[in-house]
Amino acid sequence: MNILVTGGTGYIGSHTCVELLNSGHSVIIADNLSNSRIEVISRIKQITGRQIFFYQVDVTDEEAVNSIFSSNRIDGVIHFAGYKSVTESVIKPLEYYFNNIVSTMVLIKLCLNYKVNKFVFSSSATVYGENKVPFVEDMELLPPKNPYGHTKVINEKILTDVAKANPDFSVAILRYFNPIGAHESGLIGESPIGIPNNLMPYITQVAKGKLDKLKIYGNDYPTIDGTGVRDYIHVVDLAKGHVAALEKLKKGVNIYNLGTGKGTSVLQLVHAFEEANHIKIPYEFVARRPGDIAECYADVSRAKRELGWSAERDIIQMCKDAWRFEKNNS
Ligand code: NAD
Ligand code: UDP
Q1: pTM, 2 dp
Q2: Does Nucleotidyltransferase show up as a keyword for this record (predicted)?
Q3: Looking at the domain assignment, is residue 293 inside a domain?
């Protein structure tokens, strides 16, 4: 298939392009480089030995995206492009609603116009809110605590309504848990701009000596050791989940959790990183971060049953690969 990948030079998008190419598909990337670098294109080519097409466009710009549809045969779209910082979304809600929702509407409209019937959307475990773990796809969603989360809920709703009205339009909504790690080549990975918000990039920057010590947000949660529990998934496993979702896509709306099904606490992740890479990570406990929940992990049985996909890489592998990328690239 010829797949249009929006946000394809970003963290998850770049790994997904590699897995698509490795599975024999062709890739057209549309990205405005607002949170990624052009070098990623040559790195994807280097890893796969395959050619790719790149358009530097803003996906909210209908005319620009229309010209991609009119000059390429497209069989499906994977839509990663969007803003993703929870904290920033509270400060700049309008930018978040505009970018994350208009981009989806533009793409759906063009898909319908050009009869492109396969659409895969990047959603997030944040849509479950503070539900009881493990999170199951059929659960009633609880209101997210920030504009970023709302953009995911709204996009899910738009896609569901459009699919209902257009029976040929097939949608996969993929709810990611916590992607970490990097491609084993060390050539692509996560490079946040400024001080990282997320745990793993913070740990790797402490390991590198760029940051003094990790601040652990809260040690009084009702969890195994008092620190927050998340379902960390290797980004390459997550990328492979997209290929499975695309290849096995059924008519209508198909929602899948992409996680490992296992919860890991902040302290357990810190200790795994130390064991995997033989580097001590200094840390201190500080107050809970507003908006955080105690535990978040997936029920992954639907993806296994319907897509034949499950995550294979363990926490130690995630820590080794994250550190290799950090060492090589910054
Ligand atoms: P990322 O920032 O690394 O990648 C997003 C890419 O989209 C970037 O390359 C950016 O330049 C591009 N982009 C943003 N707005 C654009 C626009 N209007 N037009 C064209 N390009 C645009 O983020 P990521 O971690 O790879 O996340 C990809 C998707 O997955 C996002 O939708 C995000 O909300 C979702 N998601 C991410 C996580 C996570 O922990 N990383 C978790 C759940 C969901
Ligand atoms: N966390 C932390 N220190 C940090 C960043 C994160 O203790 O510098 C904790 C956070 O409270 C949560 C877990 O690590 O329990 C994962 O946070 P992250 O921001 O990576 O992901 P999300 O909040 O989206 O699950």
Answers
A1: 0.98
A2: no
A3: no
